[in-house]
Input
Amino acid sequence: MARLNKEDNQGDSPKTGEKKMSEINILVASSGTRNKIIRYFKENLKGKGRVIATDMSANAPSIYEADAFYLVPRITDPGYLPLIFDICKKERITGILSLIDPELSLLAKHKAEFEALGVTVIGSSEELCDLTLDKWAMYNYLMDRDIPCARSYMKIDDFLQDLRKGAISYPVFVKPAHGSASLSIAVANDEETLRVLMKQNSDMMIQEFLHGKEIGADVYIDMLSGQIVSIFTKEKLLMRAGETDKGRSFKDEKLFAFIQDFVNGAGFRGQIDIDIFEVDGQYMISEVNPRFGGGYPHAYECGVNHMALIVNNLEGTVNQPVIGNYEEGMIMMKYVEVMVRHE
Ligand SMILES: Nc1ncnc2c1ncn2[C@@H]1O[C@H](COP(=O)(O)OP(=O)(O)O)[C@@H](O)[C@H]1O
Ligand SMILES: [Mg+2]
Output
């Protein structure tokens, strides 16, 4: 049985006693370097409850911003989930969410067990979490639904056949079908380079290179009504290490309708982050992360507060749609911060 290693950060822990009806305690699992997510939840839970964070590393800076944190084993460790359940009980958690992709399916899979403990898993179904982890499965899903996306191949011969037919041309984008954080992404301008890139491992996927505007969308789908209640869209001005470094907020009804059609058809729930391209006036879905994306602080700082929507849902309140409730032309610029702690 895994041990509970709890550290209280602040002294504002409610003392022993019954769980108040209104108390909302949120567990942010695998919070890593996402300090702002913890801060935003704390802002929205003032007087209502606490934010608890977990991570496998004591050097994850975000845990020190939470009201309390626990160091946990890797999510693949057999003791991981029992420990998370114990933390939920001990901290009277009402809602849990994860900030890393591989954990999304795990939480979704055990949704019923969490529910039995009074904990809502803030996120999409296991099937959708699995789908978004697999870019090849996602491509086939989008094709089946006739949703515009980049033409993709897992086999070099299928690509070469289309190349000869003139259905696709160089340059092409190459990336692992199960990749994340822009790792191992590359561009190939000829067959020789493509063959070398494809030999890295069997998971490599070839994709039509999209020349166009890159867009990030932060979307909240009400967990009680299943309706999209908030959309924030930004044009990505500069990317760095797989994240939007600089962005500009904008609104387009056509884009909102495109997002609504895609999201409603898929049945996502809670927070999702969508990468979209605009190529020759046509919107295309590139990728979905069914969690808070690294660029979410851009939305929050523009007043698009999805933490408040989550708290409302956990309190049993259905949110009313407030799509596009932000100013256009806001320029968002990220910068680095440093946290120092004695070991
Ligand atoms: N088909 C494409 N054409 C042009 N750029 C692309 C294409 N696919 C991905 N990219 C660029 O690479 C980045 C990472 O690719 P993505 O599919 O989002 O994978 P990851 O899971 O690593 O984020 C994207 O944010 C985008 O800037
Ligand atoms: Mg991406």
